[in-house]
Amino acid sequence: MELCQQISVLRQKITAAKSDGKQVGLVPTMGYLHAGHQSLIQQARLDCDLVVVSIFVNPIQFGPNEDYATYPRDLERDSQMAYAAGADLIFAPPVADMYPKPNLAHVEVDLMGNCLCGRSRQGHFRGVATVVSKLFNIAQPHKAYFGKKDAQQLAIIKRMVEDLNFPIHIVAIPIAREQDGLAMSSRNIYLSPAQRAQAPVLHQALVKAQEMFTLGERSSIQIIAAMKQMIGYQSLADIDYIEIVDTETLQPVEILDNSSLLALAVRFGKTRLIDNITLGED
Ligand code: PAF
Question: Which atom of ligand 1 is nearest to the CA of 58?
């Protein structure tokens, strides 16, 4: 597996692969890979001839009081994990190459970026959409792979691809979970043992919601109230939001229909965890 840090070198390699008729898959990440990232890479390996994993902790998607400086970074470990999952190439550009000048052009995602996590992370999704569009323009993959855990990010990227006519197929990969149900995340390492012990309540509350839906409950208010009560029993959990929204537009849904996104964010101390489920998915 190769490590490539220069945009021009990556472009040459991808152009050569494409002129040989190869399918190129891109897995954008911020590194500190876990089994969830590996499942994205494994799917890309099945679908594509050249699998590129980008590792870039993107400064413009972090707010001033967020963890940009301390976000876990370990390129050696990431390279081994990416290789084990089937990657051909790691693209890990320096910040100065991705942002040689202060960025003036951004991708705004309006309504979809200001709701859910966007409410407490102003500018986050503008930063995500901007860097993902840069990565798409740099790598020009046929397919790009994103995890369903970041459901808002996934919906925004799908919409961005549609709105801006990127000729890229977005592949969504199911959430990878620990044995106790906690969704895998690079930020789980921030949890203290006591917080880690309580964190599976997020998944338990989603399972409870799924059960209520299966039994015929269609009121968002009722489902959310039951979840709030359940999570509220955990002394270290501080709910940021629990919402049921349209899977495509992310706008609130009061009475559930065929397929709605139930998303939540809960803080444990300084660590904010997210999780979700799609109710009514086939
Ligand atoms: O999900 C992530 O790791 C990041 O938000 C992404 C998509 C790589 C953009 O920086």
Answer: 10
pLDDT tens digits, residue range 2-15? 999 999 999 999 99
Beta-carbon contacts of residue 47 (< 8 Å; ≥ 6 apart): 23, 25, 143, 171
Ligand 1 centroid to Cα of residue 98, in Å, is 14
Domain span at residue 141? 2-173
Among 112, 142, 173, the domain-final residue is 173
Shortest-distance Cα residue to atom 1 of ligand 1: 29
* Catalytic residue list: 37
Instruction: For residue range 142-191, list pLDDT tens digits in order.
Output: 999 999 999 999 999 999 999 999 999 999 999 999 999 999 999 999 99
Burial group, residue 23, by CB count within 10 angstroms (0-12, 13-18, 19+):
middle
Ligand 1, atom 3, lies closest to the CA of 29
